[in-house]
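Continuing the batch. This is chain 6 of the set; chains 1 through 5 are on the previous pages. Same settings as before, nothing changed between runs. Recording input and output for traceability.
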Amino acid sequence: MSALPRNVPSSTDLSGVRWLRSSYSTGANNCVEAARPRSGPRAGLLAVRDSKEPQGPALLFSPESWTGFLATFH
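Output for chain 6:
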């Protein structure tokens, strides 16, 4: 079995997800948005994209990878 890619070329490929942004975000559209696919091969991963390019790529993280990433900044 091959590993899933860690990104998608267009975040629109993640159909049916609800993109969320931080409550600290401003209306300037200069933040990231996150979504958690609920079904399909990417279920359980965290998708992150640039809010300025909603049709652009999205990075995919496992829950453990995302937790580790956040922990480096505390």
